[in-house]
Amino acid sequence: MCTETWNSPTNATRSEPPPARPGACRDPGRLRAWRASRYEAAGAVARIGRRSGAIDALLAQLGARRGGFVGAWNPGGRRASADHNRRMMLSLALATRRLKRAQGHGGVGRWQEVHLLLAGDPRRLAVLGRRWRQGGIVLVQVGAKARLVLL
Questions:
Q1: What are phi and psi of 22, to 5 degrees?
Q2: pTM of the predicted structure, to 2 decimals
């Protein structure tokens, strides 16, 4: 079930994030939720496994060819208080203030979260996702399908 992540032999490159932690793929419900979610920033919407002309245009507007949706809400996939989520998101925003970005939100059903679309190297974005205890990030690249990278 983890073959869609970066370490598939068909899409591994030197600029990819390190492999997922052991056990990162064990929750099929979480994988379904990630795949069903919408990832929005500045009005552009991405969905895992689909290309998005609006995301391509937003990346171009940011002066980038690739980036990723990174959040700080609900670390470890466990609901956190609104106050905790705001503090975590503020700390992520401060840590990434020098990166080109767009604010966004996304989710599926009642599970909604705030995130940032950050322009940059997928390896750096994976480090940020891990630092804020996220289970995954969604990478986007001009002309390519959005893809989930499990952390």
A1: -60, 135
A2: 0.85
Distance CA 89, CA 104 (A): 12
- 3-state SS assignment for residue 95: helix
* Each residue's pLDDT tens digit, 31-56: 888 899 999 999 999 999 999 999 99
Assigned domain for 30 exists: yes
Residue 78 lies in a domain: yes
The answer to whether the CB of 73 falls within 8 A of the CB of 89 is: yes
In a domain, 144, yes or no: yes
Domain limits for position 60: 26-150
Q: What is the DSSP secondary structure assignment for residue 48, as one 8-state letter? A: B
Q: 142 phi and psi, to 5 degrees? A: -55, 130
How many distinct structural domains can be found in the chain? 1
